[in-house]
Design goal:
Elements lengths: L7 H6 L4 E4 L4 H26 L16 H10 L7 E4 L2 H10 L26
Parallel strand pairs: 1-2
Helix pairs in contact: 2-3
Length: 126
């Protein structure tokens, strides 16, 4: 079966392609921060939902927000390197690999993109 992945959500939801991040990278930090934000929102909801009689409308049994980044990190922890594999990395690094090696493919979605700049000395030959 051929899996076609168009974005990060589809990558997380499928089970045919394993995926991972580089350890101690800024990308891993990005996902850890987003997972922490999801957890903080969940804890705030839980506090309001379980402890407040004033906000009876918020007393629902099912958490109404999807925890996408927590799910992504859990999938990464359990990923092996066998079979099809996706590597999530900095967009500039991915673009370089994509254009340098024909065996790589890239999904079109970028996230957490940051601009890069170079400082050059006056009258430099570059």
């Amino acid at each position: 079966m051929k899996t076609s992945v168009k974005n990060l959500d589809e990558l997380v939801q499928q089970s045919e392609i394993n995926f991972s991040l580089m350890r101690n990278s800024t990308i891993k930090g990005y996902f850890l921060n987003l997972a922490k934000a999801e957890d903080d929102i969940y804890m705030a909801w839980k506090g309001i939902s379980l402890n407040s009689k004033k906000y009876s409308y918020s007393q629902v049994w099912n958490y109404p927000v999807k925890q996408k980044f927590q799910q992504l990190l859990e999938a990464i922890e359990g990923a092996g390197t066998n079979g099809l594999f996706a590597f999530i990395h900095d967009v500039n690094n991915v673009r370089y690999q994509f254009y340098s090696n024909c065996s790589y493919s890239s999904i079109s979605e970028t996230f957490g993109e940051r601009s890069l700049a170079k400082a050059i000395r006056p009258r430099s030959t570059l």
